[in-house]
Amino acid sequence: xxxxxxxxxxxxIVGLLARWFYPGAMHLGFILTVLLGxxxxxxxxxxxxxxxxxxxxxxxxxxxxxxxxxxxxIILFIVKQLGYM
Length: 85
Description:
Elements: H1 2-21, H2 30-51, H3 64-82
Helix pairs in contact: 1-2, 1-3, 2-3
């Protein structure tokens, strides 16, 4: 249960930072911001694992937070290009 709450909190922070870094106004609510942050974490983790595999048993990738923000910005870019915002 605590893992889900922690994912929502980190997802919200990552989503807010991605919206702050991406140029232009983003009018997203709390739920979409959290989903953006969680999706960015997943995408950023996949991109990060392509460059360097985490050690066995390691749950936290060192560049995970930064890659999460980059992944969320990529998602914002794709959504903006598709015309949904």
